[in-house]
Design a protein that fits this description.
CATH topology: Ribonucleotide Reductase, subunit A
Distance between the termini: 40 Å
Helix content: over 70%
Radius of gyration: 16 Å
Shape: globular
Number of strands: 0
CATH class: Mainly Alpha
Largest sheet: none
Bound molecules: fe (ii) ion
Length: 192
C-alpha cells in the first residue's frame, strides 16, 4: 500500500511533458484523461494507506527508486527534449505500468480480500481496470512511433527485472506473461 502511494503520486506528477509532447490532439486528450485517472488513484491510495497505517516512507527502496528517481528523470528529459515521447512511454507505460504496477496490483487485490478489506479491494480493482487502458495507450503510441516489435521484448525484460522492486512476496511472472500476450495481440495492428 505504501508503494502504491508513492507510485501513483509519481505517475500523476510525471504526465505534463507527455501531454505537451503529443502531437496528435487525440493522443494529447488521452494523456490528459490518464492524468485525471492517476490523480484519482493517488487520492485513493493516500486514503487507503492512511486507514491501514502505511506511510510513503515505508515503501520498498527499489520502488521509490523507480518512481521517485527513474521516472521523474525520464519525464524531465522529455520536457527538455533530450528524450523522445517513445523513450518516456517505454518506461512509463510499458515497464512501470505494464509490468511493475500489474504485478503489485495482483498481489494487493489478492491480499485485501482475505484481510476483510473488501471496499479497498474494489477500489484496487477499479484502479487495475484503468491501468489496462493506460498500457494500451502506451503500446499504441509506440506502434505509431514505429518502434520495432523486438524492442518490446527488451521492455518486457526490463519490466520483469523492475517488478522485483516490490520484494519477494510479489511474483511478477504472471504480469509478464499477461503483458507478453497483450503485446502479441497488439503489436501486429500496424505494420512497421
Ligand atoms: Fe494509476
Ligand atoms: Fe496508469
Amino acid at each position: 500500500m505504501a508503494g502504491f502511494c508513492v507510485a501513483e503520486t509519481a505517475v500523476a506528477a510525471a504526465l505534463d511533458p507527455f501531454v505537451a509532447a503529443a502531437e496528435e490532439p487525440l493522443v494529447r486528450a488521452c494523456f490528459a484523461a490518464q492524468q485525471a485517472d492517476e490523480e484519482r488513484h493517488a487520492r485513493f491510495f493516500a486514503r487507503a494507506a492512511h486507514l491501514v497505517g502505511a506511510r510513503p516512507e515505508d515503501a520498498p527502496p527499489a520502488v521509490r527508486d523507480l518512481f521517485e528517481r527513474r521516472l521523474p528523470e525520464t519525464a524531465a528529459a522529455l520536457a527538455r527534449g533530450e528524450a523522445t515521447l517513445g523513450d518516456a512511454v517505454s518506461l512509463y507505460h510499458l515497464v512501470l505500468e505494464g509490468v511493475v504496477f500489474a504485478a503489485g496490483q495482483e498481489a494487493l487485490v489478492r491480499a485485501l480480500g482475505p484481510a476483510g478489506l473488501t471496499g479497498m479491494r474494489e477500489g484496487a480493482r477499479r484502479v487495475q481496470a484503468d491501468e489496462r487502458w493506460h498500457v494500451g495507450l502506451g503500446v499504441r503510441c509506440l506502434q505509431d512511433a514505429g518502434v520495432p516489435a523486438p524492442a518490446f521484448d527488451a521492455l518486457l525484460s526490463d519490466g520483469a527485472h523492475a517488478a522485483r522492486a516490490w520484494g519477494g512476496e510479489v511474483d511478477g511472472r504472471l504480469a509478464v506473461r499477461t503483458h507478453r500476450r497483450r503485446l502479441k495481440i497488439l503489436v501486429p495492428v500496424r505494420p512497421i
